[in-house]
Amino acid sequence: MAAKSRPVTNVRFYICAEPEWLDAAKFSVRLGRMLRRKGHRLLYWTPDVDHQTQLNELMWAYPADGFLPHRIDDNDPECGIDICAGTDWAGHHDVLINLTAQIPEPHARFAHLCEVVPGAATLLDNARDRWRHYNDRGHPLKRFETDNI
């Protein structure tokens, strides 16, 4: 019997015009809102606890007329959106939103990976390396400029 092949993660790069992490995080909140409306479960991948805290606060306050229900502790009740600080949360396999400059270790088990990249030159160079990595492994790739979305 032939082994069942695993689907390949679809990778989308969202390149932000603004160079700051916080601007990319704001875009990721808008992206998350759209994806949740479509029924997706999301895991946000942040570089550390400080960035996790910033994104948590942003989801409570941005935009000013709403908030995006989420959790930062996997012991809290499930709500469809989790924010981790560079450590894997088991049970996720739908959408991974990467807000770091590294390739998230568990990316291959997800159906979709959204790479949200601030427009700073050094971060764009790093994103090119990640693009090559995913391309070399056969992941379908798409690129979007966030000012066109």
Helices and strands in order, then pairings?
Elements lengths: L9 E6 L5 H17 L4 E4 L3 H13 L19 E4 L10 E4 L13 E6 L3 H16 L4 E5 L4
Parallel strand pairs: 1-5, 1-6, 2-3, 2-4, 4-5
Organism: Litorivicinus lipolyticus
Pfam family, one: DNA_pol3_chi
Protein name: DNA polymerase III subunit chi
Give structural notes.
By secondary structure, the chain is an alpha/beta fold. It has a single domain (10-148), classed as DNA polymerase III subunit chi (Rossmann fold), CATH 3.40.50. The chain is 31% helix and 19% strand. It contains three helices and six strands. It has helices at 21-37, 49-61, 121-136, and strands spanning 10-15, 42-45, 81-84, 95-98, 112-117, 141-145. It has a six-stranded parallel beta sheet, sandwiched between helices. Strand 2 (42-45), helix 2 and strand 3 form a beta-alpha-beta unit. Helix 1 crosses helix 2 (49-61). The longest helix has 17 residues, at 21-37. The protein is globular. 30% of the residues are buried. The mean pLDDT is 90.
What is the compact description of this entry?
This protein has 149 residues and is an alpha/beta fold. The protein has helices spanning 21-37, 49-61, 121-136, and strands at 10-15, 42-45, 81-84, 95-98, 112-117, 141-145.
